[in-house]
Amino acid sequence: LAAYLAEESPQAALRLQADEPTALAALADRTLNPRDGAADNAARPAAGREAMNDIAAIRMDGWAEIALKAAAARLSAAADEHGAAAAIAGPPSSEIQAQARDWALAALREHPLNARALRVLGQIAALQGETERAARLMRAAADRSLGESFAVYWLMQASFEAKDPQQAVAYADVFLRKRPQFLDHAMPMLAQLAESGDERSVALLESALVNNPPWRQRFFEGLPKHTRDARTALNRLLSLKETEAPPTLPELNAYLSALIKNDRYELAYYTWLQFLPASELSKIGYLNNASFEAPPTGLPFDWVMRQGRGATIDIAAVPGEAGSLGLLIELGPGRAEFHGVTQMLLLSPGEYRLKGKLKGETHGPRGLQWRMTCAATGKEIGAGPMFLGAEPRWSRFDFDFTVPDADCRAQELRLQLAARSASEQLVHGSVWYDDLSIARVEE
């Protein structure tokens, strides 16, 4: 029973067994890292505790956040924002540190390999400026349990400051596999290694990425925000291109989306080209995959199809046309939440014409329509005819648009339901599109 209560209600466990090591270590941890702003919180029952809410997590910073969420993983449901802020207002007093040390030492007397108690002692040594002693204790805690995330995080930082990239990367990998939600705390260090110019540091980081850790996608998503040169992430992606674990589509999409969000359209397009198969490069024109013959990758410069309720988007075989594929849109019956089909383009200023063909039947207040807009501003620069009614055979359509000289470095082509209100989303039918093309209009 004491062992059962040791983690959630350590004081109750100690009433039953005064030397229960898990309870002693828990008291030491919670005293040093109070969960609701009160130093004696660890001595109160913990029944009904829930996971720390995101708002409190955002207010926390650096090692305090790691200590609170990794060492004392759950926060009292009764703690308000003020209580959470008080918990990190400053380092614990010498009296609190002494009490935590006594409980940690008592836990070690009963269980000399208790990683949590060793980490608490290491944390106290770090607070008192005893760096070498803290390092020994933190290493001992991590050696006994890699789940001691605060110890691993501390060792990661210490290794980086000691210019030991091998240990820094190794500890970062362990830490992020256990605590991926704390990637932002490791990113400054990883970003410095990524663009350090030191071949050994870069090679160590790339070796960790080749192992395809679960934090790799978020790493590429966040790297542009932490580096001076946005091409740093591209270089790391290219280093993985010929490995056994090349960049995945979600990883490429995360990086491309980050570049586009920061208006780095040209670099995003160049990056996308680097990962196209050689057979596809020769087919690149103003519009990619214009006849829907290849499965869409979902990357911004290919077709992005966002499914919605009451609407189905698919690339399928065209009935009666052997080997021919087309874009099939099925709407309704009832309200269709059609989120659109899009592709980002990089067209130079000038006049263009989009052509294509369609067939099908739709009924409702409004129909489907192709639109061209400037990516940065959303300004419409052209729109095709809205399709309503029936076209049992292929019918051609086209529209002209002009890319202006300013504020339109990238464009977005979008197929949308031209509904202006919820009532105009009440449509039903299906439409095929195929053989799209964009060409300059000759003067």
Question: How would you sum up this structure, described in words?
Answer:
The chain is α+β, with helices and mostly antiparallel strands. The chain is 43% helix and 19% strand. The protein is built from 18 helices and 12 strands. The longest helix is centred in the first third of the chain and has 17 residues, at 94-110. The N and C termini lie far apart (87 Å). 37% of the residues are buried.
Number of strands: 12
Radius of gyration: 29 Å
Biggest sheet features? 5 strands, antiparallel
- Beta-strand content estimate: 15-25%
- Shape field: elongated
Uncertain spans: 36-89
Topology:
Blueprint: H1 2-5, H2 10-16, H3 21-32, E1 50-51, H4 54-59, H5 62-71, E2 74-75, H6 81-87, H7 94-110, H8 115-127, H9 131-144, H10 149-161, H11 165-178, H12 183-194, H13 199-210, H14 216-226, H15 231-240, H16 249-261, H17 265-274, H18 278-281, E3 304-305, E4 311-317, E5 325-331, E6 341-345, E7 350-363, E8 368-374, E9 380-383, E10 389-403, E11 411-417, E12 428-440
Antiparallel strand pairs: 1-2, 3-6, 4-5, 5-12, 6-11, 7-10, 7-12, 8-9, 8-11
Helix pairs in contact: 2-3, 3-7, 3-8, 5-10, 7-8, 8-9, 9-10, 10-11, 11-12, 11-13, 12-14, 14-16, 16-17
